[in-house]
Structures are given as structure tokens and as C-alpha cells.
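Intended use. Records such as the Transposase IS110-like N-terminal domain-containing protein entry shown here are meant for training and evaluating sequence-to-structure methods. They are not intended to support clinical decisions.
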Amino acid sequence: MAHLPGLAIRRIADLHPGAAKTDARDAYVIPDAARGLPHTLRRVDVGDETLAELEVVVGFDVRIPAGLTARAGRLAPRSGGRR
């Protein structure tokens, strides 16, 4: 697991076009820095318990859109049925 410090993000963002601080821009800048400038990342040592907690959180976030899609499908009117 690694961390990219906020100041490093801002400096790297200055190398990219645009001036606005937006989530979309950060979503581009951060992985681009991880790929192109891996030395800017700081290692984060975590124990097994922390990793297990992160897996639960990430798994929960992945299941939310799938659940919403399934519910929307059940609520959508069906074509070809009685009127």
C-alpha cells in the first residue's frame, strides 16, 4: 500500500493542463503519478487487520452499484405485458 502526499499531488498536477482542483483531475493525476513517478509514493505499512478492514470497505463499495442496478431492473415497467 502506498500514499501520495498532498503537496506532491499539487506539484505533479501543475505539470498537467488546467488549473482547477477537481476530483476528476485528481483521478487522472494520482494514477498517472503512480505509473510515471513511482518514487513519489510513500510506503504505508499496515497490519493484516487493517488490510482485512479495507477489503470489507472496498467490497461493500463494489456491491452498492450492482444492488442499485438490480433494484432499478425490478422497478422498470415491463414491455409486452397487460395494460
